[in-house]
Design a protein that fits this description.
Layout (H helix, E strand, L loop, with lengths): L9 H27 L3 H27 L23 H25 L3 H27 L39 H27 L3 H27 L22 H24 L4 H27 L12 H6 L1
Length: 336
């Protein structure tokens, strides 16, 4: 069969639709960054990320048109105002792009393996490679400026050991069991999740300053409190083993109260970050044998799930939540 004769699968539809919406959002955010960035090295990274979003939107539009697939509304120039005061520092742009590249790498790699049609696989393969290049560029600039934050170091093991005691799984729940030291993969996830929550807190602080709706500002303020709490929990676990914790970016929020983005875009962006955070917690739970560490992830994931649900309700109430492709309601069709 020719490629054009093979229908898109539900997986491909969903991935293409979500990528288009997310790229239109990214284009708005990055166009604002590009308009106000001052550092020449950071400008080159922002420009590369912006061009990547533009090219992907063009390629996705071609795919949709070829399939007679309704092009999502997504976000447009109506959702961004580049002619306002600076809300975040130049260095924050690097951390933001680094984090979003990480989210993209996880998403695109999974989508690539789940896609069936060769042209769709090719699209996500190319997108994955370009995102790898973006991550490399932003990492190099962070390192050259002394802004790159490395996870904690630890000694190289003297040899190979095997677990001899079931206390390896214990988190000291009952007081009489000592907590074993954190293993390397637990440290990695604790550090990374403290870092991403710190970035999320900074973004929520900025959004809280400029949101037009009082209701949405309260929602962002609640998100700041949740992020602060999660950072503290992860940091305290690291500190218990005398390990360093990531820095915060609170000082990278300027004093502007002029909104560069629409309330719709900011609320959607927060929901996207929550979805990525939920995925991070799920992976970290599976990778953490120590029960207390895993239990924290499960408990905190439930908290952000509740927060995400409230955000989704607000998007629906304002008529901002665009409906993804969904299966036909067979029961309703049979009735009619």
């Amino acid at each position: 069969m020719k490629e054009k004769d093979i229908r898109l699968t539900s997986t491909e539809m969903g991935a293409l639709w979500a990528t288009y919406v997310n790229d239109t959002m990214a284009r708005c955010v990055l166009s604002y960054f590009h308009h106000i960035v001052e550092d020449s090295e950071i400008t080159s990274v922002v420009k590369y990320a912006l061009d990547l979003s533009d090219k992907q939107i063009q390629e996705l539009t071609k795919i949709f048109n070829a399939e007679d697939f309704p092009i999502p509304k997504g976000f447009s120039d109506e959702d961004v105002n580049v002619n306002v005061k600076r809300l975040f520092s130049d260095s924050f742009f690097l951390y933001y792009i680094k984090n979003m590249a990480k989210v993209g790498l996880v998403t695109y790699s999974m989508t690539y393996t789940m896609a069936s049609r060769s042209d769709i696989r090719s699209f996500f393969h190319d997108t994955l490679l370009k995102t790898v290049k973006l991550d490399q560029k932003v990492t190099e600039v962070l390192q050259s400026k002394g802004l790159y934050i490395r996870p904690p170091y630890m000694p190289i093991p003297d040899g190979i050991d095997f677990v001899e005691n079931k206390n390896f799984l214990s988190g000291g729940f009952f007081g009489f069991l000592d907590k074993r030291p954190l293993i390397s993969i637990e440290i990695a996830h604790l550090f990374a999740n403290a870092q991403t929550n710190g970035l999320g807190k900074t973004m929520l602080m900025g959004f809280n300053q400029v949101a037009r709706s009082q209701e949405i500002r309260k929602y962002f303020s609640r998100g700041v409190d949740i992020s602060t709490k999660h950072v503290k929990i992860f940091a305290d676990i690291l500190k218990d083993d005398e390990l360093p914790v990531p820095m915060t970016w609170d000082s990278d929020v300027m004093d502007s109260t002029e909104a560069p983005f629409s309330d719709k875009l900011m609320l959607y962006h927060v929901s996207l970050l929550i979805a990525a955070g939920t995925g991070n917690y799920g992976i970290a739970t599976a990778a953490s044998p120590r029960r207390d560490v895993a239990a924290n992830y499960i408990r905190l994931a439930a908290e952000i799930a509740s927060y995400a649900e409230d955000g989704a309700k607000m998007l629906i109430e304002h008529g901002w939540l665009e409906e993804p492709p969904q299966a036909p309601d067979r029961k309703e069709l049979m009735k009619t």
